């Protein structure tokens, strides 16, 4: 539940508080074992149904660098990366996510991961040789929310190509930035990931305390992962950074030139949440990829938590551009540790799409005028009112 009396409303229209004002009604137990010390999101293992087609998208269109590949798997990295990979494309029968992988500080943190998740009764498996090439001793779990999480410390170092400007394309992807997970109960997820050591930077709520989404970090950016309320567990997107906004526009231009503009799902635009410039693409299997740049530093221990009103029409796009319905409804399946798709559980709290778009929803640009707007101006009233 939200207690807005603990928050301060800012001149930009959102609220700030010292700690995330989110309380879980149905929390996952907090283990007595300490959590592993997570450094950052490191890579995602994606199962794709046509490896050659996916390779074209991620290598020829988006320009990721191939570290290594064989008949079934392609290992890709961004230009500033020095670990073996940020994305694994693996040929398989069902498009899905096999692992959300995080790098931890030391080998001892893998022992901590085993103890932490064993105490929670999760499926926990350790592979001293790693589950993928280029990665050493690793722990994979199905976490209490149903997501396949991986932790590793040792990795093969590869050349950081940051200075190889001869390799840069106009839309060059320079870092992996974050994951985004769809889960039915956002407060439950937030509480569990706080136990795992994450700190909330921003969230979206309504005045009744329903939480629609939350952003959580280990590295000092807005997030390493976010939880989006919806039917889950599913993967909403994986995000790569560019240096500049114009790199994102160049990706749009390139997709147009290739007659692949239908891969653009949403954007380009500027987020309210995170303040980042963004673009959402859909890969050949429908996996969603965000291109993202220029969020802000969050590393101080008293970094203010930002809470957005779900009815604020600038929360998802600062310019008020409507969110397309597929962005709310579509997401990728996730796998258990045997490679089977995890069952999807329906969200029971109200959906963000329902409360903001169409006949049952409303949004405002100026909260002070919310009550006085004519009907035609209510809802996602720029273009979304047509949806
Ligand atoms: Fe994102």
| Strand content bin | 25-35%
End-to-end separation: 30 Å
- How many strands? 20
CATH topology: 2,3-Dihydroxybiphenyl 1,2-Dioxygenase, domain 1
Class by SSE composition: alpha+beta
Number of helices: 6
CATH class category name: Alpha Beta
Protein described:
By secondary structure, the protein is an alpha+beta fold. The protein is built from 6 helices and 20 strands. The model has no long low-confidence stretch (mean pLDDT 94). The two termini are 30 Å apart. It has one domain (34-356): 2,3-Dihydroxybiphenyl 1,2-Dioxygenase, domain 1. It has helices spanning 51-61, 108-119, 186-195, 245-257, 325-329, 352-356; strands at 8-9, 15-17, 38-48, 65-69, 73-77, 87-91, 96-104, 124-127, 138-142, 148-152, 175-183, 199-205, 211-217, 225-229, 234-241, 264-270, 277-282, 288-293, 305-309, 332-334. Helices cover 14% and strands 30% of the residues. Residues 178, 180, 237, 239, 290, 292 line the site of fe (ii) ion.
In short:
The chain has helices at 51-61, 108-119, 186-195, 245-257, 325-329, 352-356; strands spanning 8-9, 15-17, 38-48, 65-69, 73-77, 87-91, 96-104, 124-127, 138-142, 148-152, 175-183, 199-205, 211-217, 225-229, 234-241, 264-270, 277-282, 288-293, 305-309, 332-334. With 387 residues, the protein is of the alpha+beta class. Bound molecules: fe (ii) ion.
């Amino acid at each position: 539940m939200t207690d807005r009396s603990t928050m301060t409303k800012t001149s930009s229209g959102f609220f700030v508080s010292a700690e995330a004002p989110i309380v879980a009604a149905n929390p996952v137990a907090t283990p007595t074992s300490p959590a592993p010390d997570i450094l950052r999101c490191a890579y995602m293992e994606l199962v794709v149904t046509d490896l050659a087609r996916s390779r074209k998208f991620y290598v020829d269109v988006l320009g990721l660098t191939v570290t290594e590949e064989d008949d079934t798997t392609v290992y890709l990295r961004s230009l500033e990366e020095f670990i073996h990979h940020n994305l694994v494309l693996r040929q398989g029968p069902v498009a899905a996510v096999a692992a959300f992988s995080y790098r931890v500080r030391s080998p001892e943190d893998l022992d901590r991961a085993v103890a932490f998740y064993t105490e929670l009764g999760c499926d926990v498996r350790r592979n001293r040789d790693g589950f993928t090439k280029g990665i050493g001793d690793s722990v994979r779990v199905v976490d209490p929310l149903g997501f396949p999480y991986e932790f590793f410390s040792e990795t093969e170092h590869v050349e950081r190509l940051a200075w190889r400007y001869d390799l840069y394309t106009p839309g060059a992807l320079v870092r992996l930035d974050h994951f985004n997970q769809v889960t039915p109960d956002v407060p439950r997820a937030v509480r569990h990931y706080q136990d795992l050591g994450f700190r909330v930077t921003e969230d979206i709520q309504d005045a009744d305390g329903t939480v629609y989404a939350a952003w959580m970090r280990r590295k000092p950016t807005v997030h390493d992962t976010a939880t989006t309320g919806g039917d889950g567990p599913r993967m909403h997107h994986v995000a790569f950074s560019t240096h500049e906004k114009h790199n994102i526009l160049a990706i749009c231009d390139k997709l147009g030139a290739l007659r692949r503009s239908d891969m653009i799902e949403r954007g380009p635009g500027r987020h309210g949440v995170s303040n980042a410039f963004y673009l959402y693409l859909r890969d050949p299997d429908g996996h969603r990829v965000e291109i993202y740049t220029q969020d802000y530093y969050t590393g101080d221990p008293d970094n203010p938590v930002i809470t957005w009103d779900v009815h604020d029409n600038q929360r998802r796009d600062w310019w008020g551009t409507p969110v397309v319905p597929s962005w709310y409804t579509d997401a990728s399946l996730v796998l258990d540790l045997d490679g089977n798709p995890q069952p999807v559980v329906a969200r029971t709290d109200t959906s963000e799409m329902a409360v903001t778009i169409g006949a049952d929803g409303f949004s405002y640009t100026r909260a002070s005028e919310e009550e006085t707007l004519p009907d035609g101006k209510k809802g996602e009233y720029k273009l979304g009112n047509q949806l």
